[in-house]
Specification:
The protein has ten helices and 14 strands. With 290 residues, the protein is α/β, with parallel strands linked by helices.
Length: 290
């Protein structure tokens, strides 16, 4: 399996301001790879460095085995990019803008533009200035996919889309992936990442904290625990417990470790009710940010 995106100790410094530090990523062909972290964590800086929109301070960044700065024109011919915010010439019709975008690629994209417009229910003859935020986002989606790219990079792609259109968008991305496209999906909305991605990198303050399979993050190694007791709890400590919340006589937390050890430790409490379930990705994710 070939590697589509590879970075080694990729760093972008803004002087006194933090950018990204020693980013190591390896994304395989055909993956839908999640990139998650709160706003300001370094997701967009990483993506813009990969695309050659800003230059790195140090380290390496390659796409398709090519250097992201030296070979940016060759790389971008096979990349579809949807930024978190899209800005266009308001006086242009969507179809004119998209045909202009298509002119940069050595292929006829007309049929594909109309196919995508139909899927996303977008009036291509409408002027940009007359469109809602959601419809402008649809224009951006079509612009990113019209040339059937080998790599699709999505930076907070669903902002502005209503829930029904978000569902269609995810189906569209899955279809592109099934055709062979690799996808880098950057988001701070964990439920989106959990739905669509194979693996995920967690970024905090410009550094990668962990790279995991989604299935491993939500596997039996973690449990979401909630229990109540016959009397009020003022203090609670338990080895392996994360994100502990205490309210009167109830306690909730995410547990990582052996379930037998968990039950043995809980045995010292006068428990009146207990619920042990699989945690959401958000429950697991939050422990990296406490």
């Amino acid at each position: 399996m070939s590697i589509v995106i590879e970075t080694k100790k990729l760093t972008k410094s803004y002087g006194k301001s933090r950018g990204i530090i020693d980013i190591d990523l390896s994304i395989n062909q055909g993956e839908i790879f999640g990139f998650i972290g709160p706003n300001g964590a370094g997701k967009s800086t990483t993506i813009r460095t990969l695309l050659g929109l800003i230059f790195k301070t140090s380290g390496e960044a390659k796409i398709f085995g090519l250097d992201c700065e030296k070979n940016s024109h060759e790389i971008l011919a096979e990349v579809g990019y949807l930024p978190s915010e899209v800005f266009y010439y308001d006086n242009m019709k969507a179809i004119d803008l998209l045909k202009y975008s298509a002119s940069f690629y050595k292929k006829d994209c007309t049929k594909r533009i109309y196919e995508l417009g139909e899927v996303l229910e977008l009036d291509l003859n409408k002027k940009i200035e007359d469109m809602s935020l959601g419809n402008k986002k649809k224009v951006g989606i079509i612009q990113g996919l019209l040339h059937s790219p080998k790599l699709i990079i999505l930076d907070e792609p669903t902002s502005g889309l209503d829930p029904l259109m978000q569902k269609k968008f995810f189906e569209l991305i899955k279809q592109e992936n099934q055709k062979g496209a690799t996808v880098l999906f950057s988001s701070h909305i964990l439920s989106e990442v959990q739905k669509i991605c194979d693996r995920v990198a967690i970024i905090k303050e410009g550094r990668i904290l962990q790279v995991e399979k989604i299935s491993d993050l939500t596997s039996s190694a973690y449990k979401s625990v909630y229990f109540t007791t016959s009397s009020q709890i003022n203090d609670f400590q338990l080895d392996g417990a994360l994100n502990i919340e205490i309210t009167n006589n109830s306690v909730s937390f995410v547990y990582k470790g052996n379930c037998n050890n968990l039950l043995q430790q809980l045995n010292k409490y006068e428990i009146t009710n207990i619920d042990i379930t699989e945690p959401s990705l958000e429950d697991i994710f939050m422990h990296y940010y406490v």
